[in-house]
Amino acid sequence: MDLKRSTVILALLLLCVVSPLFNVVNAQNYERTFRLLDRPNGSVTYSLTVSITSSLYNYYQGKNHDIYTSSDFGKLVTPDAVKPIADALWQVYSDAEIFTDAVLGVTHQIPYEVYPEVYPVETLVLNKGDCGGFSLLVASILKAGGLDVVLLEYPTKQHLNVGVSLPHRPTYARGGSVYYVVYNGKTYYIAETTGDNFPYGWRVGECPTELRSVNPNVIAIVNYEQTAPSKVLASFTPLNPSQITISVSSFFAIENSVITISGMVSPSTASNVTIYVSSLGGVWSKLAIVSVNNNGAYIYEWRPQGGGIFYLEASWSGNRDYAGADSSVVSLLVVPFYGLVAGVLGLMMLILVIVFWLINKRGNLPPTSPTVEESQPPTSPPLEETHPSEDSQQTTSSTEQETPPAETKTQQPKEEQPPLEENKASQEETSAPQDSQSQQQAPPEQQPTEQTPQETKETPPQEAPLQPPQETEENKLPPQETSTDTPP
Question: pTM, whole model, 2 decimals?
Answer without folding.
Answer: 0.67
